[in-house]
UniProtKB/TrEMBL annotation:
The keyword Transferase appears for this protein: yes
Keywords: Cytoplasm, Lipopolysaccharide biosynthesis, Nucleotidyltransferase, Transferase
Protein name (record): 3-deoxy-manno-octulosonate cytidylyltransferase
Catalytic activity: 3-deoxy-alpha-D-manno-oct-2-ulosonate + CTP = CMP-3-deoxy-beta-D-manno-octulosonate + diphosphate
Pathway the protein contributes to: Nucleotide-sugar biosynthesis; CMP-3-deoxy-D-manno-octulosonate biosynthesis; CMP-3-deoxy-D-manno-octulosonate from 3-deoxy-D-manno-octulosonate and CTP: step 1/1
Stored CDD domains: CMP-KDO-Synthetase
Tagged with keyword Ligase: no
InterPro entries per the UniProt record, alphabetical: Cytidylyl_trans (IPR003329), KdsB (IPR004528), Nucleotide-diphossugar_trans (IPR029044)
Compartments, record wording: Cytoplasm
Family: Belongs to the KdsB family.
Length: 241
């Protein structure tokens, strides 16, 4: 089974223009992402999908593979689909270019369920929330799953709502995805769903259309980069490690 990781990397972020090129310990963030996923023995190929020549030049400068895409894509998933269309691969993994702490073991955990289940079409990850403040934070996406580890729902709200104050664990969704290539194109052709619009969470399109998403649990706590201040948090973590 061939696995290709595609890293969508857009230059024009509203809150952090040029984010993929931000310097983290003397290395551009996109290079951290690229090298980390390349370390996985499950991965056959890594490609950066970008709409900007500046990012393309940096990626090719560290001998990475890069594909220049259209600037018109509404989502990162649409961007990776443009790249994946002509690839000979079985599994497409979507890793955002602002996840410099992504690791090889996370990619392996994400892909492993496809080795066990030929019917699986889409997978993602979750991690237990240890900070109580994150439970109510709308910027921390929560996920609940059934007993077979398939998603029931993703939300910015607190789910489950603990009416009876019983002991319950809350899980943060880690926004990396793996798709069977054939399903990826079915998925992007689905119309934008009501729940997706309401929560601004693209993965709800799959659930609302009756598709199952397998969710593996990991212990890793990623620090995504949304604003320039997040760079300091990532550097502190890397120095401590």
């Amino acid at each position: 089974m061939k696995v290709t990781v595609i890293v969508p990397a857009r230059y024009g972020s509203t809150r952090f223009p040029g984010k993929p090129l931000a310097n983290i310990l003397n290395k551009p963030m996109i290079q951290h992402v690229y090298e980390n996923v390349s370390a996985s023995t499950f991965v056959d190929e890594v490609i950066v999908a970008t709409d900007d020549e500046r990012i393309k030049n940096v990626v090719e400068g560290f001998n990475g593979n890069c594909f220049l895409t259209s600037k018109e894509h509404a989502t990162g998933t649409d961007r990776i689909a443009e790249v994946a269309r002509d690839l000979s691969t079985d599994i497409v993994v979507n890793v955002q270019g602002d996840e410099p702490l992504i690791s090889a073991d996370l990619i392996e955990t994400l892909v492993q369920p496809f080795l066990k289940d030929d019917t699986l079409q889409m997978a993602t990850l979750k991690t237990k929330i240890n900070n109580p403040e994150d439970v109510a934070n709308p910027n921390v996406v929560k996920v609940i799953t059934n007993k077979d580890n398939h998603s029931i729902y993703f939300s910015r709200s607190t789910i489950p709502y603990n009416r009876e104050n019983i002991e319950v664990d809350y899980y943060k969704h880690i926004g990396v995805y793996a798709y069977r290539k054939s399903f990826l194109f079915d998925y992007i052709n689905l119309p934008e769903s009501i729940l997706e619009k309401a929560e601004s969470l693209e993965q709800l399109r799959a659930i609302e259309n009756g598709h199952s998403i397998y969710v593996s649990e990991v212990s890793n706590e990623l620090i995504g980069v949304d604003v320039p201040e997040d760079i300091d948090k990532v550097e502190e973590y890397l120095k401590a490690r």
